[in-house]
Each structure stands twice: as C-alpha cells, then as structure tokens.
Amino acid sequence: MESPGGRQQRRSNPKPTFAERRAKRGEVTDLAEVLEASARLLEARPRSVDEIRRRLRGLGYAAELVESTIARLTELRYLDDEAFARTWVESRDRAQPRGERALRMELARKGIERETVDAVLDDRQGDAAAGPDGVSADDGAAERLLRKRLAAILRMPDPRARLQRAYGLLARAGFGPDVCSAVARRVLASEAEATTIVEDEI
Questions:
Q1: Is 113 helix (H, G, I), strand (E, B) or coil?
Q2: N or C: which end of the chain has fewer CB within 10 A?
Q3: How far apart are CA 159 and CA 195, in angstroms?
Q4: Helix, strand, or coil (residue 37)
Q5: 3-16 exposure pattern, b = at least 16 Cβ within 10 A, e = fewer
C-alpha cells in the first residue's frame, strides 16, 4: 500500500523472528502440537530418536513434552532406532556404498547406540557371506562403488595412477586398507583383461 506521497508504507505486523517463534513454542503445553511438529519432521525423511529430540528441543519445545512425544512415537513404532539403522545401511549399500567404519560413524552421529549398530552391521555381514559370491559386506560394497566411478578412472592412461585413484576413492568412503587394495587391484585387473580379450578379437 502506498501513502499519498507515493511512498510504500511499512507493514504494521512484521513476521515473527525465529527467536520469537521459539519462545512461543516454549510456552506450549499441548502434547498434540508437539506430536504434529514431529509428524512434519518425519514426513521429510525417517529420523532417529536422537535426531527428533534435538530438532524438537532446537525448535524450543519443553524437554518434558519432547520426551513424552518420543515415548508416544516409539510406542506407535514411528520411531525405531534399529529399523532406522537398517534402512540407513540398506540405502547406503544401494545408492552410496560406504565401508563399515564410515557407516559406524554416520550412525553414531545420528545417536544410534553402539549395540544397535553392532547388530545391524553383523546382519549386513551375515547376509553378504550367505550370498552367491560369499564375499564380505565391505568387499561387495567397495566393488559396487568403484564400478560406479570406473569410467573416469579408466580414462587415465597410467595404470599406477588408476590404482592410486581407485584406492583413494574407496579409502575416502570408509573402507579399510585391505579392502581398498584388494578390490582396486581385482576390479582394475578384470577390466584390463576384458580390454585385452576385446582387442584380440578385433
């Protein structure tokens, strides 16, 4: 709206600041309101108990209401750290493979207890060992990651530089030195052998 002089008038009701909204949430006493806020957080993606606790406390809700909300969500199975950890590991293995060390660090940052992480990663290892190849979970995950990036590595003319690049890629993804070395050598050797066969057939 413009004043008679042509200047735009300032709004009489400015938008509340984050601090003001946070202070208002601190006055909330209705559990339903905190449950609703949690539902919005969980709509975006699955979260661990610790993530929900930190987000709700960060938004300003009272600690006792936050804990009551977590208890209710856990009872309803909307929060389940073991299921969250399994989903996280499966998603990583499928889309962005990581070594066990990296997975442990990521889940620890999400607030997952060590016993839960141990159980989930033990099952991951058991599933891999029972598979047709019988390789370790990290071995299989490392090979999947390397094959996703292999085209760029193979464009490097120097075989030693290829090996170093492959090793570095796997090490940055949290795989141990033995896995990095074995998988990098095996995959690059198989590609070199395949190239030789093709060239011999031409």
A1: coil
A2: C
A3: 13
A4: helix
A5: eeeeeeeeeeeeee
